[in-house]
Amino acid sequence: MPRIEEEIESALEIEEPTKYKVLLHNDDYTTIDFVVDILMGVFHKNITEAEAIMMEVHKNGKSVCGIYTYEIAETKVYQVKTLAKSSGFPLLATMEEV
């Protein structure tokens, strides 16, 4: 049987995944210490970064905590919601496409 070889040309374009920013929103009930703990625990910020972001949330009503792919951003929002609820705080985290 004759051997048939077929050359396949395929141009694969690899695109960067869409990024999402995770935002924390200010409220009148969540303590400053809890927000700093969330920023350090969930978003892996050091104390200086966590305090700076916390102050931005407090002064501006919201602040970006990080920029991630969709799945990671969704997980971070879920973690914040779960930790806040279990601690009795209404802290809100959302995500927006960059």
What do the pLDDT scores average to? 93
Q: Compute the number of strand runs.
A: 3
What helical percentage do the residues reach? 40-55%
Main beta sheet: 3 strands, antiparallel
The SS-based structural class is alpha+beta
Low-pLDDT windows of residues: none
Q: End-to-end distance, in Å?
A: 57 Å
CATH class of the domain at 24-90: Alpha Beta
* CATH-assigned fold name of the domain at 24-90: Ribosomal Protein L30, Chain: A
- CATH 4th-level superfamily of the domain at 24-90: Ribosomal protein L7/L12, C-terminal domain/Adaptor protein ClpS
What is the strand content?
A: 15-25%
Total number of helices:
3
Strand arrangement, major sheet = 2-1-3
N-to-C SSE string, H for helix and E for strand: EHHEHE
User: How large, in whole angstroms, is the Cα Rg?
Assistant: 21 Å
Shape: elongated
CATH architecture of the domain at 24-90: 2-Layer Sandwich
3D architecture notes:
The N and C termini lie far apart (57 Å). This protein has 98 residues and is an alpha+beta fold. 42% of the residues lie in helices and 21% in strands. Helix 1 crosses helix 2. It has a domain at 24-90: Ribosomal Protein L30, Chain: A (2-Layer Sandwich), CATH 3.30.1390. The protein has a 3-stranded antiparallel beta sheet. The radius of gyration is 21 Å and the shape is elongated. It has 3 helices and 3 strands; from the N terminus they run E-H-H-E-H-E.
